[in-house]
Amino acid sequence: MKTNQVINPAGLYEFQNESLNLLTSVLGVSKAVSYIVDEQARPICYKTYHMQSSMHREYMETYHKLDPLHPTQFSEQDATVVKMNDLVSTQNRYNHPYYTNFISPWGVQDIVELFLRVDNRLVAGFALFISKQQSELRSADINKAEQIHRFMQFSLEQSYSSPKQAQFDHFCTAFQLTPKERMVVQLVAQGLPNKTIATDLNCSLATIKTHLQHIFAKLEVNSKTEVASLLYQTH
Amino acid sequence: MKTNQVINPAGLYEFQNESLNLLTSVLGVSKAVSYIVDEQARPICYKTYHMQSSMHREYMETYHKLDPLHPTQFSEQDATVVKMNDLVSTQNRYNHPYYTNFISPWGVQDIVELFLRVDNRLVAGFALFISKQQSELRSADINKAEQIHRFMQFSLEQSYSSPKQAQFDHFCTAFQLTPKERMVVQLVAQGLPNKTIATDLNCSLATIKTHLQHIFAKLEVNSKTEVASLLYQTH
DNA sequence: CTCTATATCAACCATCCGGTTGATACCGGT
DNA sequence: ACCGGTATCAACCGGATGGTTGATATAGAG
């Protein structure tokens, strides 16, 4: 039972929306994706901005394995803002199927990835897509992204020590919820339907239903609305 | 649009549970019922203690019209604790169908009713049932009931000026919810299924569904869980 | 090396819920 | 006298949800 030591991404979901909004409105990007990183360093809870769902599906099914900016590559590093075209030489890029078969056909020229960490652990990431129609990213743009990253990192640390977060943690530990169950509760508290929760957590509807059964049993309730209600009443 | 002036029973439901628990655990009663009183002085949201559901059904269908302690009788008075056997003479009691056909067959000897008011308006009531097996209520018992009533009245006034109540009111007025819609939202926030909400509000399932459609439209959501979620997020 | 906890998924069924349409009734303001 | 807002109810449909059973896989504890 190591539930207590787990860093729980409660509150991250709202943070994620706000951050994605900030990034896409300030920087000139054609598409963007944000995600949470779970304890196994795997990205979950994708939120997209101006990205075709078919493109995202392609990534999820195939190209995530080839992604040079995939979070698993960076979980042990301290990289914050990484530009794909800096990471991969022009030569290698044109031989790289990730570039030739996926990024390029979708009209993308470059990708800038921002990583957020708490206690040195990678907890969230943002991928900003630069289209071929745009000019090459200048150092000024990268600088902007770094400044925004700095503030997001600050904001994230605030979120982790907020009373709301503490309250949520207390709630979850009081009912002895497992890490996955906590995430489900978090999404239930957003009022999301099961299907969306399954998509967000990158697992099947059946799994979510099983998690929900366990949550219902632990909280002694029998509907998602009651779960949200309990959270509301516990403040 | 007189929504703003309406006294809204938000938070009353929790209060109701706590009060019923207090009364039944401290005083020697065989059954008890509590209810909220709406703007039309009609009782809604019944909560029962040790009362057979068939007895309550009989009351709801027939005998509420004959009830000498019915809240409509007391909405304009300032009565607080009323003992039925003090109100109705022994002679009249034995000719009264409410007593001979309803109360007596269910083994009840006497009823003590407690009324709670805010700004002189009757907002909630509690009926305590004394069984025939119990000794006649002594003045000491009535005194206890009056002391408890005093504290309940105090507590109720606190509830009405609590931040939680203010927050809820602000939430409802922000979305321009009608009085009935507020009550529905209040019950949704308890995580209750529609059927229970209908029973509580003493109207049909269809009516609740219509109210919910209006609420969904006003809050721009499309599920009850999202309503609870919105309330939770708004603190 | 078991055994338990956790996480994953499938299939089934009954019920609940959301969405819609349409209808009646009451009240208050124009 | 008419109209808009509120409250009430009915009937229908399809999809979402809750409940159950059973199964597999992995990891950590004893």
Overall number of domains of chain A: 2
**Order of helical and strand elements of chain A:** HEEHHEHHHEEHHHHHH
Largest interface: A-B, 20 and 20 residues
Number of helices of chain A: 12
> Which range best describes the helical content of chain A: under 10%, 10-25%, 25-40%, 40-55%, 55-70% or over 70%?
40-55%
Termini gap of chain A: 26 Å
Q: Predict the CATH topology of the largest domain in chain A.
A: Beta-Lactamase
Organism (chains A, B): Amphritea balenae
InterPro entries (chains A, B): Sig_transdc_resp-reg_C-effctor, Tscrpt_reg_LuxR_C, WH-like_DNA-bd_sf
Keywords (chains A, B): DNA-binding, Transcription, Transcription regulation
GO molecular function, one term (chains A, B): DNA binding
Give the secondary structure arrangement, pairings included:
Two copies of one chain form a homodimer.
Chain A: H1 12-26, E1 31-37, E2 43-49, H2 53-61, H3 71-74, E3 81-83, H4 84-87, H5 90-95, H6 97-103, E4 108-118, E5 121-131, H7 139-160, H8 163-174, H9 179-188, H10 194-200, H11 205-219, H12 224-233
Antiparallel strand pairs in A: 1-2, 1-5, 3-4, 4-5
Chain A binds a DNA duplex (30 and 30 nucleotides) through residues 1-2, 178-181, 193-195, 203-207, 209-214, 216, 222-224.
Description:
The structure is a homodimer of 235-residue chains. With 235 residues, the first copy, chain A, is of the alpha+beta class. Chain A folds into two domains: 3-160, GAF domain (Beta-Lactamase); 163-233, Arc Repressor Mutant, subunit A (Orthogonal Bundle), CATH 1.10.10. Helix content of chain A is 51%, strand content 17%. Chain A contains twelve helices and five strands. Chain A has a five-stranded antiparallel sheet. In chain A, strand 4 (108-118) and strand 5 form a beta hairpin. In chain A, helix 1 packs antiparallel against helix 7, helix 9 (179-188) crosses helix 11 and helix 10 (194-200) crosses helix 11. The longest helix of chain A has 22 residues, at 139-160. Chain A is globular, with a radius of gyration of 19 Å. Chain A starts with 11 loop residues before the first helix and ends with a helix. The relative contact order of chain A is 0.14. Residues 1-7 of chain A have low confidence and may be disordered. Chains A and B meet through helix 12 of A and helix 11 of B. Chain A binds a DNA duplex (30 and 30 nucleotides) through helix 9 and helix 11. Chains A, B: Keywords: DNA-binding, Transcription, Transcription regulation. Chains A, B: One of its GO terms (biological process) is regulation of DNA-templated transcription.
